Amino acid sequence: MSLVFDVLAVEGLPVTAQPYSERRALLEALDVEGPRVRPVATFEDGEALFAAGCERGREGVVAKRQRERYRVAGMGEGEEPRDRACRREA
Fold this sequence. Notes:
The structure is a single chain. By secondary structure, the chain is an alpha+beta fold. The protein has two helices and six strands. The strands form three sheets. It has a two-stranded parallel sheet with strand order 1-4. It has a two-stranded antiparallel ribbon with strand order 2-3.
């Protein structure tokens, strides 16, 4: 099962310059859910989501800023981009 949380291109055209909120709307409009792929649910309260994930033994959560465009350049190895964060249970 693949879990999809973002879209970077639609019909061959890049959408990385659009903020995450718009890319997420595009993803939902694509209706990609099927037997082997599913869009990840979104949540407003990241702290509560992280706590619930820890309680269930999940590794962590990934958070994205709604107004930020997709950025890759300037990432060092093991470094998270400034427009999203990954938090893992210690």
